[in-house]
Design a protein that fits this description.
alpha+beta, Immunoglobulin-like, 2 domains, four-stranded mixed beta sheet, 4 helices, rod-shaped
Length: about 160
């Protein structure tokens, strides 16, 4: 008699955006000691590329997100050749805010200064929360010339 293998995708995790994530199914097992095959699939969330998806240990480049807590769900499928079992893992992604990086490209540069000047020239746009998190460098709740000057100083360093 053949017993069903046990798939173990690991515990749910919270990780930073734009990092490399290890999906570890190494704790999966088969009581019959049959050789196991593995397959990782993404079930939901922002699209991510899985490397080594046919191994017990796979890797994912965690994409950038706009908001904390965006989730990606992966499924590990384990088979002993006859029977199959699955286990899911939920990854919550932390949005890492780099003060002054208005376009969220990971770099402080002239493009950020131009965007910040556009923001402070139009009071309605300067209240946009998406940009406020990145543009309010002195954290006083407003996007103003002092933030632009501070960004220029950061870029010059």
């Amino acid at each position: 008699m053949n017993d069903t293998p046990i798939a173990n995708a690991g515990d749910d995790q919270e990780v930073d955006e734009d990092t490399r994530l290890t999906l570890n199914g190494y704790q999966s097992s088969d009581i019959d000691n049959n050789d196991l095959s593995y397959q990782w699939k993404q079930l939901s969330g922002i699209s991510a590329i899985i490397e080594n998806e046919n191994n017990s240990i796979a890797y994912v480049h965690v994409p950038k997100v706009l908001h904390d807590g965006e989730q990606i769900i992966f499924r590990l499928i384990v088979s002993d050749g006859n029977l199959t079992n699955v286990d899911d893992i939920c990854i919550s992604i932390r949005n890492i805010v780099k003060q002054g990086d208005i376009n969220d490209d990971g770099h402080l540069n002239l493009f950020d200064i131009i965007l910040m000047l556009e923001l402070i020239s139009d009071i309605n746009d300067s209240q946009n929360q998406l940009f406020t998190d990145h543009a309010d460098i002195n954290l006083n709740g407003y996007i103003e010339l002092a933030d632009v000057l501070f960004l220029i100083k950061l870029i010059a360093e």
